[in-house]
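notes to self, project folder thing:

trying the whole complex as one job this time. last attempt i did each chain seperately and stitching them together was a nightmare. three parts in total, labels are on each line so i dont mix them up again. if this works i'll redo the older ones the same way
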Amino acid sequence: MKDTSTNMRLKLPVACFILEIILIILFGVFVEYDRDTSAKLHKSDRNDYDNDFYYRYPSFQDVHVMIFIGFGFLMTFLQRYGFSSVGFNFLVAAFSLQWATLMQGFLHGLHDGKIAIGVESMINADFCTGSVLISFGAVLGKTSPLQLLIMAIFEVTLFSVNEYILLGLLGTRDAGGSMTIHTFGAYFGLMVTRILYRPNLNKSKHKNSSVYHSDMFAMIGTIYLWMFWPSFNSAITEHGDPQHRTAMNTYYSLAACTMSTYAMSALVAHDGKLDMVHIQNAALAGGVAAGTAGEMMLTPFGSMIVGFLAGIISVLGFKYLSPILEEKLKIQDTCGVHNLHGMPGILGAIVGAVTAVAIPKEVYGNGLEKVFPDVASGERDTSYQAGMQAVSLAVTLSFAIIGGVIVPGEEHHHQELTAVRTEESDKLND
Amino acid sequence: MKDTSTNMRLKLPVACFILEIILIILFGVFVEYDRDTSAKLHKSDRNDYDNDFYYRYPSFQDVHVMIFIGFGFLMTFLQRYGFSSVGFNFLVAAFSLQWATLMQGFLHGLHDGKIAIGVESMINADFCTGSVLISFGAVLGKTSPLQLLIMAIFEVTLFSVNEYILLGLLGTRDAGGSMTIHTFGAYFGLMVTRILYRPNLNKSKHKNSSVYHSDMFAMIGTIYLWMFWPSFNSAITEHGDPQHRTAMNTYYSLAACTMSTYAMSALVAHDGKLDMVHIQNAALAGGVAAGTAGEMMLTPFGSMIVGFLAGIISVLGFKYLSPILEEKLKIQDTCGVHNLHGMPGILGAIVGAVTAVAIPKEVYGNGLEKVFPDVASGERDTSYQAGMQAVSLAVTLSFAIIGGVIVPGEEHHHQELTAVRTEESDKLND
Amino acid sequence: MKDTSTNMRLKLPVACFILEIILIILFGVFVEYDRDTSAKLHKSDRNDYDNDFYYRYPSFQDVHVMIFIGFGFLMTFLQRYGFSSVGFNFLVAAFSLQWATLMQGFLHGLHDGKIAIGVESMINADFCTGSVLISFGAVLGKTSPLQLLIMAIFEVTLFSVNEYILLGLLGTRDAGGSMTIHTFGAYFGLMVTRILYRPNLNKSKHKNSSVYHSDMFAMIGTIYLWMFWPSFNSAITEHGDPQHRTAMNTYYSLAACTMSTYAMSALVAHDGKLDMVHIQNAALAGGVAAGTAGEMMLTPFGSMIVGFLAGIISVLGFKYLSPILEEKLKIQDTCGVHNLHGMPGILGAIVGAVTAVAIPKEVYGNGLEKVFPDVASGERDTSYQAGMQAVSLAVTLSFAIIGGVIVPGEEHHHQELTAVRTEESDKLND
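result (full assembly):
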C-alpha cells in the first residue's frame, strides 16, 4: 500500500521534471527568434511598426483567453469535477504549448536547422492546445493527470502531422480550424473515451448534472467564447481584408446561431423550458462552423445561414444523438464535444468546400491571392480547391479516429494505475 | 390549460425562427462588405495595414465584453433573477446586433442600395445593443422573453432614428453615447417600467436584495465595466489624437468618480458603512458623464471634475431619488439605471455642450476638423455647436420618453400572457 | 461611544474628498496632454496612426485587467476577507492611479512646468498601483481603509523615487518591473506587516484558509494573470522587436514555471496531493522572474530555465520559508507575496544583470540601441551595465525595507483607531 502511494507521489513530479528538461534542451538546440522578434535579422531601415506583433498580438490574447479560461476552465467546470479538471487542464495546456511549438516547427520546416518563432507560432501553439482541451472535454473524469500528459504528447504530434498534411501538402484553407482544431479534437477525444469506456461511470452520472453556481460560471465561459470567437477565426488569416472579413463573418454567424439555439432548445423540450446545456454549447456552434469559410467571401448573409444551421444541428445532437452514442456505441461524451465541435466542425468543412467552388474567383478581386494563393497563381481552379478541402475533411477524420484508437491502447497496461490515480484526483475536490 | 402551455412552447421558437429568417433575407438583399473588408473595393497598391480593423478591433472587443459580460450578465445577475435574466438578455442581445446593423445602415444611407458593413458598424451595433440592455435593467423581472424581443425591435428602431437625427442631421458630437446610448436607454426603460407597473412586485422585493456571491459577481462586472470604459468612449472617435484623448479623459474621470462615490456612500449611511450597490454602480457614472465631451479638449483636470460630480449625483440618486420615483411616480427601476445611466447621461450631455463653447477652437490646432468638422469648415461657430448639443439632449429625452410610453402600450393586449410567461421564466431558476 | 462612531462616519468621506480635491487642483496646474494626445502639438502632415495609442493601448488594457481584476480582486478574494478587501483595494487603486501620475511626472521632469501624459504614463501609473496592491497582499486584514490610503500616499511616492533613481539615474533596464514593481512592493509590504504585527491575528487564522468557491475564483484570477503577463512585461518596452521578444520570453517562462510548480507541489506534499495555493501563486513566478531580462536576448531557452527555477523557488518558499518568517521574524505575509513577488523579483533582477553581461552586444544587431542605449552609444560596456543592474537591486531593497519600516511608524499614533476601524471594516462581510 505504502509502496503504491510513494509511487503516486513521485510519478507526477518526475514526469513533469523530465518532460520540462527535455523541452528546455530541445528549445535550446532548435528554437530561435524569428525576423520580427530579433532586430539582427532585419534591415536597419525597417519601420518598428512593420511588425507582426502589432497586427496579431491583440488577437493572440483573445485566443489565449478562449483556450485557458474558456476551454480549459469554464467549459469543464460545468461538470463538477471542479479543481481536479481545472488543475490538470492547466498543467497539460502549459505542456502542450511548448510541445506544439516544437512539433509544428519541425513539420513546417527548419531554416538552417532552426525553428523561428514569433507571435504567429504562439497562436498556432495555442490552437493546438485548444484541440487537446476539446479532446479532454470528451474524456473528463476518466483519466489521471499523468495519462492526460501522455495523451497530450501523442495528440499534439498527430495534430501537427494532420495540420501539416492539410495546410502544407494539400493547400487547404482552414484558418479558423473547423477541421484541424475542432473536428480533429472532437473525434480524437470521442475515440479515446470509447476505448476507456467504464460501465460503472454511469452510476455516478449525477456528478455530470450542473448546479446553480456552476451554471453561472459556465455561462460566463460561454459568453467569453462567444465574444472572442471572431478573434479566434481571424487570428492567423492573412493581414488586411481577409482578417477583417473573417471576424465579421464569425460575428454574424454566432448571432444567428444564438437565435436558432434558443428556438430549438425551447422546441425540443416537452415543457418549453430552455435547457442551459444547449445554450452554453450550441450557441457557440456558429463559431466552429465559420472556421473554414470565414476568410472566404461567405458574406454576412451566408454566415448567418451557416450559423443558423449549426445551432439547430448542435441542439438536435444534444437531445437525440448523444444518448444514442452513449447507449449504443458506448461513447461517453462528458462535455458533449461531439455537438459543439464534432458536427459543427464537419459542417464548417463542408461549407468551406462549397464556398470555395460556389463563389467565382472574380469576386475576390486582387485579394484572391491571400485567400486562395494556388488559384491566384493559376496552379489549380476553384473546383480543384474545393476537392482538396473535401479530401482534407476525410484525412482529418481518419487521423482523429485511428489516432484516438491507437493512443490509449498504448496506455492500456497502466489500467490499474489509472483507477487509483483517478480516485486520488477526486480527493482534490474535498 | 394544456392549450396555453402548448402556446408557450411554440411561441418563442416560432418568433425566433421567423425573426431570424427575416433578418437573413434582409441581410441577403441589403448588406455587403465595406471597402476595408473586401479587397475588390480598394486599389491593389493599398497597404494591408491601412485597414480600420487594426485601429478599431481591439476597442471593439473591449466594448463587446462590456455589453455582453458587463451589462448583459453581471449587472443584472445582482438582482437574483439569475439565469432567466442572463439567458433572455443573451438572446435579445444576439437579435439586437443584427437588427441594429440593418436599422443603422438604412438610416445612415444606402450606397447603390446596399449597406456597407465593417468593424465600425459592428461597434455601432454593439452600442445600440448596450442601450437596449440598459432599458432591460429598468424592467427586469416584469417581462417575458417574447416581450423583450418585441421591445428590442421597437427600441433598436427608435434608437437608430434618434441617433441619426443627432449625428446625421444636427451635427452633434456624442462618440461615447452619453445621450444616444445612456440617456436614451435609461429613460426609455424607465417609461416602460412605469407602464408595466405591478403593485404586487413590491411584495417580492426581497428578491432584489443581493447575496454574498451575487455581490462578488456583480463587483467583477463593475470592475470590468470600469476598466474598459475608456475603450467604450473612444471606440468610434476619429483616429489619432481624439481616440487617444478620449481614452485618457475617461480613465481619469472614472478614477475621480470612484473617490467621490466612496466618500458619498459612507457619508449618506447612518452608520458609515459603505453600500455595495453604490460602489457597484456610482463608481461607473464617471464613464457615462465623459461620453460626450471625452473627445473634446476637456483635459484630465476637467474630466476629473466631471467624474467627481457624477459620483456624487449617482449616490444621491440611489439614496434619495430612487425611493421617490418608486413611491410617488410608480417607477420601479430594478437596477437603478436612472442613477447610473440617466442622470449621469444628462450630466454628460450638458458637459459636452459647455465644453464645446467654453474651449476656444484654437486649442484644437489642426485637430479641430476631427472633433468639430462643421466648426472647422466655418459652417457654424462653437456656440452654435453648443446649442445643437443642448437641442440633442432634448430630442433624445423626447424620443426616449414618448417611445417608452407608446411601445409597451402596443403590447398591452398581451398582458395576461405576460403574467403567465413571467412565472414560467422564473422556473428556470429552480 | 457615539463620538467615536461619528468620527468613523466622517473620517473616510472627508479624507476622500480632500485628497481628490487636492488631486484635481494639482492636475489643473501641472498636467497637460502629450504630443500624441493633442493635435496641436504635432505637425499637420503627421499620420494618424503614428500614435503611441495604437501600439500600447491593447497592452494597457491587459495590464489594467491584471491590476484591477487580478491583483486587486481575485488574488485577495482568496483570503475570505471578501468585500472589505475588494472594496478598499478598489478605492485605493483609483487614488493611486492619480497620485502616481503626478509623482512619476514630477520625477521624470516637467516640460515648461507641465507633466505631459498619454497612454504610456497611464501604463506607468497602473504599474505603480500594482506595486501598492502587492504590498496590500502582505498586510491584508490588519488595516483600515484610511490607513491604506495613507500607506498608498507614501508608497506611491517612494516607488516613484526608487523608479526614478533606477531608470533615470542609473540607466537600469527593468521594463517588466522585477525590481521596481515586484521586489519593491513585496518587501515594502513585508516590512509594514512586521511593524503592524498582531499576535492575536494567529487565532483567527482559519479565515485565511480558502473555501471551494473562493478557490475557483482565485484560480480564475491566477489564469488571468498568467495569460496577460506577456502584455505586462512588454507594455512599456521600446516599439518593435523588443516588445515582440518580451511577450514571447514571458510566455515560455510561464509555461515552464507551471510545469515545475506542479512537480514541486506534488513533491513537497506528504500525500502527493497538489496544493492549490502553490498553483495559484507559484505558477505565476515565471512572469515576475522574466520582468527584467524579458526584453533582452534571453531567448525562449533561457526564459524557460528562468521560469523553471522561479516555480521551484516559489513553492519552496510557501512550504518552508513562510512559516519561518511568521514564527521567527513575526512577518505575517497574508497572501504569500514574498513567494510570488519577493524572491522571484530578486531572481528576475539577478537574471537581468547576468543576461546583460552574458549576451554579447553583437547579438542585438542594430536593435542594441533600444535595449541598452548607453551601451549602444559607447557610454558604458555590458559589464558596467550589469553592475548597474545589480546595484539597482540593492537600492530597491533598501528603499522598500527602510520605507516599509518608517511609514507605518508615522501612523503608530492612530493605533487605537486602527483596531476599531478594522472591526468596522469586517462588518462589511456580514
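what i see at first glance: The domain at 32-37+56-427 of chain B is CATH 1.10.3430.10 (Ammonium transporter fold).
need to look closer tmrw
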